[in-house]
């Protein structure tokens, strides 16, 4: 069971990091950015491609991967969200445009084969690939019966540090106050002289950078990078995490991420492998019935 | 005078004989020449089966190119339309229907995945269009494509070695070599290919003296398999059986080796592509499967195929390329003998089906090729092991 708890903490950290980005956008804009899972995948794919096909060192590739993800946040804002806001479209419209963008990003990566239009971005088509151990050293330690891999162990401090920094920025800085003001009431924020569009762009850049980084860590830790990792592994789970933690709450997303990881792994150990998805979503269902605002959703006035 | 008579008779006889062959052929050549034999392939070029489909397509295209360059089938050219089913059962059936009814193909190849074959094969059967399965290895593919109905499907053929033959052969060979005592089976429960394979493993372990400690089921889209691998490793089995496909085998192998497990991996057809061997790398070293084809076979029909494929695509072919290539050769050979009219599509499809039943090719990349009475492939089984570098080595040859 010890190894299983470790498994839960590793995957929980990734869920948390992914969900923090998800929930940040929800907190500010009240919309679900369903392209977030595609950004998660893009971060991993770009980093892989830079390391393997363009020969960059892993650390440089990571930085570029996060930067590309952050840029994709701007694309989401300018292509999927801002035009709709201008037309005062209902939130459901943004749901559809972001799903559309996610499909386009996944399809673009999927088409990436040697000689194709997207070969500079990705050459492995629908295949799943993993970082070569020569480029991304993955030391393994055996402590008693436990197996610890460097690529998994680093996730925990990185996740926690980033989440603390984000929490600090939002709570104690001028930018954070601006974000909270926009989340509270965009109109009032605008009247107070805040550039609301800029704040929203910033939110998407931050959120997407976190999503991309989560993707990179996922790819390195689980040895699985394919056009489908976002859709298959984190999209619906991320949604579960933010509902579990309380929509729009960053602390909730963190706790929800670890909780979901733990619930899933314990379900496998206790009830057998069929139960993984079922138990996780039963917990979600229970949460919705017993405490619809989620674990940390009590203070509805303050959203992020 | 008598002598001259004899010569005259002999000449006449020779002429008649010649007419008999070219004459018969003459009429066929006339009806074939300038015509097009339309074939359609339903392959998984993207999504889960995207690891296998593209190589199948490349093998088929190579065979079509070679046959057309050599004058076609009695003068008729082959045209092959390849459509992607995105590894999705419903899309696979929709694509098949379009190919049969709209594109009016004479015969179909595919689909890549057994999971999709369940939808596509009964459809082809009901629309009386011959279909040749090129990589489907699950159970109930031939002859009972409408399982649980057991009426043999007349139009469904298979040129890929079924897991019912391959997995037992693999287990038996390893049991004879190393006498393992215990095993754990990891199976993707929501995938027909994997669960069929798992069933075959369960049915064959005890006969080979192996006790199956646990069957661990997971879902094919789960990226994090570590909890399942941990469960398997903690049971300390001699063998881990993996019947999944795509990226899953490599992930399980890497995870289990990282957790310090030293035993033997045995698997199915999902192992048999260079992509999987490459993904598994060192963790896959020695992992065994029984295969329909082996890259290193030096008999002429395989060596020629391998070098032509390399010249065309600049990579080594794999089993799926070889099966796709062979499938086109089988259909071309059948079409040659089928006396097609090119006017009556339904009649031609039935003639082609009848000719396919009598295929007997002495040399293909898979070795000598025939169909059994059940329309299944009859061929040699090659037990191969991953070499840790993206390739395979031959361990046993089972005739």
What does the model show?
The complex is a heterodimer of chains A (304) and B (399). Chain A has 304 residues and is mostly helical. Helix content of chain A is 71%, strand content 3%. Chain A has a two-stranded antiparallel ribbon. The longest helix of chain A is centred in the N-terminal third of the chain and has 29 residues. Chain A starts with a helix and ends in a 14-residue tail after the last helix. In chain B, a hairpin with a 5-residue loop joins strand 12 and strand 13. Chain B contains twelve helices and 15 strands. In chain B, 44% of the residues lie in helices and 18% in strands. About 4% of the residues of chain B have low confidence. The chains are: A mainly alpha (304), B alpha/beta (399).
Quick one: how many beta strands of chain A?
2
> What series of H and E elements makes up the topology of chain B?
HEHEHEHEEHEHEHEHEHEHHHEEEEE
**What's the average pLDDT of chain B?**
89
Which H/E pattern describes the elements of chain A? HHHHEEHHHHHHHH
């Amino acid at each position: 069971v010890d190894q299983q708890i470790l498994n839960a903490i590793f995957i929980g950290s990734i869920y948390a990091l992914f969900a923090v980005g998800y929930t940040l956008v929800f907190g500010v804009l009240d919309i679900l950015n369903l392209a977030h899972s595609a950004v998660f995948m893009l971060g991993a794919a770009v980093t892989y491609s830079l390391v393997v096909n363009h020969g960059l060192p892993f650390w440089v590739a990571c930085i570029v991967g996060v930067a590309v993800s952050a840029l994709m946040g701007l694309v989401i804002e300018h292509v999927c969200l801002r035009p709709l806001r201008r037309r005062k479209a209902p939130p459901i419209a943004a749901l559809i445009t972001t799903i559309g963008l996610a499909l386009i990003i996944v399809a673009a990566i999927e088409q990436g084969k040697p000689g194709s239009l997207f070969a500079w971005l990705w050459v492995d088509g629908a295949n799943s690939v993993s970082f070569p151990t020569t480029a991304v050293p993955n030391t393994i330690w055996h402590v008693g019966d436990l197996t610890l891999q460097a690529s998994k162990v680093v996730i925990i401090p990185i996740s926690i540090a980033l989440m603390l920094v984000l929490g600090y920025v939002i709570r104690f800085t001028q930018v954070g106050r601006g974000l909270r003001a926009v989340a509270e009431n965009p109109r009032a924020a605008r009247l107070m002289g805040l550039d609301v569009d800029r704040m929203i762009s910033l939110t998407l850049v931050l959120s997407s950078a976190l999503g991309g980084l989560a993707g990179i860590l996922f790819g390195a830790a689980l040895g699985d990078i394919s056009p489908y990792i976002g859709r298959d592994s984190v999209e619906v789970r991320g949604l579960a995490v933010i509902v579990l933690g309380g929509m729009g709450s960053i602390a909730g997303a963190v706790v929800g991420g670890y909780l979901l990881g733990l619930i899933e792994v314990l379900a496998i150990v206790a009830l057998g492998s069929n139960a993984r998805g079922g138990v996780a979503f039963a917990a979600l269902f229970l949460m919705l019935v017993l405490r619809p605002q989620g674990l940390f959703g009590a203070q509805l006035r303050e959203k992020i | 005078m008598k002598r001259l008579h004899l010569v005259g008779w002999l000449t006449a006889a020779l002429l008649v004989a010649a007419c008999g062959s070219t004459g018969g052929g003459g009429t066929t050549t006339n009806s074939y020449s300038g015509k097009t034999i339309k074939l359609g392939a339903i392959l998984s070029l993207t999504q889960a089966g995207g690891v296998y489909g593209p190589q199948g397509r490349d093998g088929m295209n190579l065979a079509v190119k070679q046959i057309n360059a050599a004058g076609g089938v009695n003068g008729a050219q082959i045209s092959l339309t390849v459509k992607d089913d995105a590894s999705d059962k419903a899309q696979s059936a929709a694509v098949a229907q379009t190919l049969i009814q709209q594109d009016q193909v004479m015969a179909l190849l595919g689909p890549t995945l057994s999971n999709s074959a369940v939808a596509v094969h009964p459809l082809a059967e009901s629309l009386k269009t011959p279909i040749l399965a090129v990589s489907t290895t699950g159970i109930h593919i031939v002859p009972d494509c409408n399982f649980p109905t057991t009426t043999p499907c007349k139009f469904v053929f298979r040129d890929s070695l079924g897991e019912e033959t391959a997995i037992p052969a693999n287990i038996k060979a390893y049991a004879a070599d190393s006498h393992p005592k215990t095993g754990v089976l990891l199976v993707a429960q929501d995938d027909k290919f994997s669960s069929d394979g798992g069933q075959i493993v369960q049915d064959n372990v005890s006969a080979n003296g192996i006790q199956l400690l646990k069957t661990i089921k997971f879902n094919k889209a789960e990226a994090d398999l570590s909890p399942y691998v941990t469960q398997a490793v903690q049971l300390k089995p001699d063998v881990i059986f993996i019947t999944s496909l795509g990226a899953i085998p490599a992930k399980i192998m890497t995870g289990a080796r990282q957790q310090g497990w030293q035993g033997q991996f045995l698997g199915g057809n999902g192992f048999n592509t260079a992509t999987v061997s490459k993904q598994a790398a060192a963790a896959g070293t020695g992992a065994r499967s029984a295969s329909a084809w082996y890259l290193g076979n030096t008999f002429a029909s395989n060596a020629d195929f391998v070098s032509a494929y390399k010249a065309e695509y600049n990579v080594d072919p794999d089993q799926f390329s070889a099966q796709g290539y062979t499938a086109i050769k089988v259909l071309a050979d059948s079409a040659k003998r089928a006396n097609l009219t090119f006017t009556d599509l339904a009649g031609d499809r039935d003639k082609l089906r009848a000719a396919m039943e009598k295929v007997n090719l002495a040399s293909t990349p898979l070795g000598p090729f025939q169909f059994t009475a059940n329309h299944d492939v009859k061929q040699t089984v090659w037990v191969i092991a991953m070499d840790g570098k993206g390739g395979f080595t031959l361990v046993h040859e089972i005739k």
